[in-house]
Every structure is written in structure tokens, then in C-alpha cells.
Amino acid sequence: MPKATRRRTKRANVEVTETTYLPGILKKLEELTKYEVHIGASGDTETAKIAAIHEFGSVKAGIPARSPIGGGKRKAQAAISKLVKAGVNEIVLKNETAQGLLEKVGQTGLKKTLQNFDKIRQPPLNPIYAKRKGNNKILVAQEKKLRDSLKFVVVRKR
């Protein structure tokens, strides 16, 4: 009788051997596909309106788009990708849960979004408006309230 050969495959830094229960791994990872992380401004309608004007601009009011949330999302993509690659391995090794990984993704994305919010410089303010306002800082009006309204939430995909 021929001897069974050992087979090992390594993909995405996850080692699969005969002792690994593949359906169990797939079930754990399937939970990740059922949820997503949303990062944005939460609060009353006035805060949402201010956040939307800063995010997309307002032609009527002459305010250009200064995307604090979208820019933060773009800047967080590399860090989140790195975190997810490591997190998937931890889920397979039973050192992490899917919900725990999603929370970490939300915290990382929110941190990068807040850093981006604090660094917004472009496009610069109109010199006439900056003189009347008294400084060149872009997001002064209700800045603290808007910054504090940035949150993340883990939601079920539709």
C-alpha cells in the first residue's frame, strides 16, 4: 500500500496542513464578509450639514471641497490593509475574533481620519475671508464639535 504523502500549501501567510480544519477556517472568515466598518460624522442635522459642506464643498456659498473624511479614508487604506492581513492570520490561529478585527479596523481608520482632519491645508482660504476671520486656519467654525462627531460603527452588510 503506498504511503500517503504530506501536502502543505501556504497562501496569504496561512499555513494549511492535514490537521487544519479548512471548513472551520472558512466559517470564521465568513463572518468578516457579513460586516463592514463605516467612518463618518454622527450627531444632529446641523453637524451633518457642516460635515457635508466641508466634505463636498458648496458652490452656492463659495466653499471648496476639503475632504476630511474621504482624505482620511484614502490615507488609512495602507494601514488597514496591513492590519487586515495580520488579523486574518490571527483569526485562523484563534488569537482574534472577526468582531475584534473589525473594531481594530474602525479604530485605525478613525485615527487616520482625525489626523487628516487636523492637517487640512488645501485649498487655502480666500485672503479676504482669512483677514476678516482673523487667522488662516481652515476649519475653525464648529471645528471641535465636528471633530468630536467623527465616529466609526461596525454594521451588517445589506
Describe the structure in your own words.
There is one protein chain. The protein has 158 residues and is α+β, with helices and mostly antiparallel strands. The chain has one domain (22-156). Helix content is 53%, strand content 13%. It has 6 helices and 4 strands; from the N terminus they run ββαβαααααβ. It has helices at 22-33, 45-56, 68-92, 98-119, 127-133, 143-148; strands spanning 9-11, 14-16, 35-41, 150-156. The chain has a two-stranded antiparallel ribbon with strand order 1-2. It has a two-stranded antiparallel ribbon with strand order 3-4. A hairpin with a 2-residue loop joins strand 1 (9-11) and strand 2 (14-16). Helix 3 (68-92) runs antiparallel to helix 4. The longest helix has 25 residues, at 68-92.
Write the layout of secondary structure elements.
Blueprint: E1 9-11, E2 14-16, H1 22-33, E3 35-41, H2 45-56, H3 68-92, H4 98-119, H5 127-133, H6 143-148, E4 150-156
Antiparallel strand pairs: 1-2, 3-4
Helix pairs in contact: 3-4
Q: Class by helix and strand content?
A: alpha+beta
The N- to C-terminal Cα distance equals 52 Å
Order of helices and strands: EEHEHHHHHE
Number of domains: 1
Strand order of the largest sheet: 1-2
Helicity range: 40-55%
Categorize the overall geometry: elongated
What summary fits the major beta sheet?
Answer: 2 strands, antiparallel
Q: Helix count, per DSSP?
A: 6
Radius of gyration of CA atoms, rounded to a whole number: 22 Å
- Provide the residue-averaged pLDDT: 80
